[in-house]
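Example 3.2
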Amino acid sequence: MVDLADDAHMRSLEPLAEEFYEKVLCPDEQPGFVSDEASLLDISLTPEELLIDRIKAHYGKTVTRADLRKSFWSLLMDLNEGGTPPEIDVPLEPPQRKSSRQKISALTVGIIAALLTLSLYTVGSQVSGKTGQVLAGLLFPGLLGSMALAGNVHAFSLWVAAAFNGIFYCSLTWAVLSLLTAMSRRFR
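Structure, written as tokens:
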């Protein structure tokens, strides 16, 4: 199960957020979940200049690029002159940063892929059968990258292949976890 960041502030500001989504964001950018740690740039793909113009047009206030990067709930509070709906009982303090499991997971998978590639120096010739086929298939992207960089399929560096595999699998894991997180937000 994917643990989502806290959203107590955003839930308490839901009427203000809905107004913002309707008046400032594009219709196809209605977020399903916004955590207390998210900034406006995390939930919108609209160019910064256009966001600044739309905010100015609706709220009559000028915001800076830095304002777009601070927590979205804090921006909502500033745009509404610090006013809060009467049902808010949540103390509005910046949330504590949580460790990112997504980053740690991606780095872990990348490091394991790199180490498996380097293990070919010692166990490469000893692995056979289905295990060898699976290992070769998993390590192929890095081997292919190393061969391409060396320009020779017969003489290439496993160190370069390990770097390629580490980067490839770290990126792949990051993308898959990002997609799963986005899907869980959408269907929540």
